[in-house]
Please model this.
Amino acid sequence: MQSVSQIVTIDRQRLFSETAYGRRVVATVETERTRLAQETRAAEIDLAQEEKLLTEQRGSLDPAAFRILADEFDKKVSELRAEGQVREQDFVSVLEREQSAFFDRIGPILGGMVRELGAVVILDRRAILLATRNIDITDLAIRRIDQELGDGVSEDADPSTEPTDDETPANVEDTSEPSPPEDDSNN
Model:
């Protein structure tokens, strides 16, 4: 399999969202989000009933006693809202953590593809203003990732996916000094 270019592109978002691994992660997060949303709705129903009862009691309670009950009710509502915001932040954190783990795991797979294609670099399509379609290897990468990682649940590491010295993961910053340009003159 030979590339038409030494530069190939991928769509990182599609790599995650269209692989079995990414779909599993998103489905897991969405399932938990749905479960917690149902719990929140049940708590909101309980609070609505409590509010109705409190409203009915308002006329029969002395104002100080009512204020205490109303403040307790407001505290419950505030806690429920704060809990919801924390849960949403947790979902975002889990998704970001899982995406990071995914990209760490696919580095060796993409590195192998670069060698097979005779390419020297993979660029994210979003960073390119204009390119020909034949340098995009996203579909090929999705198929290869699904073949090698599946849904990402299996912990059996394929030894062929171990990184080699000539692969630099995209999330690792190169801190080495640049080498000086070669002198092509015949002195």
